[in-house]
Hints:
Elements: H1 8-20, E1 23-24, H2 25-36, H3 40-52, E2 56-59, E3 62-65, H4 69-85, H5 89-99, H6 104-117
Amino acid sequence: MNELKMGTAEAKFADMIWEKEPIASGELAKLANDIFGWKKTTSFTVLKRLCDRGLFQNQNGMVTAMVSQKEYYARHSETYVDETFGGSLPAFLAAFGTRKKFTDGEIEELLKIIESMRG
Length: 119
């Protein structure tokens, strides 16, 4: 998973790619300029790093995902829980709930997710 870790700016850029893909690399650079104020060279440098990590590919100027956004964030979440809470999802939820109480709606949603994962 280390090769898939991203900083905040890279993650925002990646989210933009996932939202717009397939997208021409030139169009991507224009969007990055509009949204982040990045120069074309910065966009291409960040894109190359993300491609080198296996998240995206840039073939003939067309950028597409090699890993879906959902898959990336699932892997990222699993790694975080593994590294920080010894793989214990209950420990993560307990820690999360110490500062932010769950609403009734959130609890119902979590219960539905748990039920769908049984058996």
